Amino acid sequence: MSTLIVYFSFDGNTKFIAEKIAETLNADIIELKTSKKYPTEGFLKYFCGGKSVIFGEEPKLTNNSIDLNRYETIVIGTPVWAGSYTPPIKSFIRQYKIQGKQIALFASHGGNGAEKCFAKLKEALPGNKFIGETAYVEPKKNPEDSSSKAVRWASDILAV
Ligand SMILES: Cc1cc2nc3c(=O)[nH]c(=O)nc-3n(C[C@H](O)[C@H](O)[C@H](O)COP(=O)(O)O)c2cc1C
């Protein structure tokens, strides 16, 4: 079963988990990058990121074109922003008409909003089969626990 991990990460938490999952599944991994740069500090970081979600922005991805035909399973990872998934993930979903795939979702967050984020992702990805979802609270603060949770979760997906 060929699997691709696609993720966006602003502060490295989602990246940390994405890399663990990719390592466990021996899967390809792509970090989404955008030309739009969000402020990295203070009030503006939350304000601009939150606003980008609320206004439904789809920042242009700078990644090379991704051939999704090569994969049966796509694992999508995002930080929770304003109770939703991040704008680069929205760009990815809109750019690639993802259909007929097995999809697993994971998210990093600060304590709330993961359920809503997953519900919105599922709504945005009709025509696919969802095989799992899991959320991590600030995983880089607790690297050992988060990484063993990621390894277990990834192994479960592979067993599907
Ligand atoms: C713009 C912005 C909005 C956020 N909104 C939420 C939120 O609604 N709920 C939450 O629990 N955490 C929220 N967070 C915290 C991040 O989800 C959390 O720090 C996550 O681990 C970051 O992942 P990353 O390091 O991969 O970027 C927000 C962070 C930012 C920058």
Overview of the structural elements:
The chain is α/β, with parallel strands linked by helices. It has one domain: Flavodoxin domain (Rossmann fold). It has five helices and five strands, in the order βαβαβαβαβα. The chain has helices at about 15-25, 40-55, 85-95, 115-125, 145-160; strands spanning about 5, 30, 75-80, 100-110, 130-135. It has a five-stranded parallel beta sheet, sandwiched between helices. Helix 1 packs across helix 5. The relative contact order is 0.20. The structure holds flavin mononucleotide. Flavin mononucleotide binds near residues 83 and 111.
CATH class: Alpha Beta
Count of DSSP-assigned helices: 5
The coarse silhouette is globular
Identify the bound ligands.
Answer: flavin mononucleotide
The figure for the number of domains is 1
- Could you give the distance between the termini? 10 Å
CATH topology type: Rossmann fold
The CATH architecture term is 3-Layer(aba) Sandwich
Which SSEs are present, and which pair or pack?
Layout: E1 3-7, H1 13-25, E2 28-31, H2 42-54, E3 73-79, H3 87-95, E4 102-109, H4 114-124, E5 129-137, H5 143-159
Parallel strand pairs: 1-2, 1-3, 3-4, 4-5
The protein binds flavin mononucleotide (FMN).
Flavin mononucleotide (FMN) binds at residues 9-15, 45-46, 49-50, 79-83, 108-113, 138.
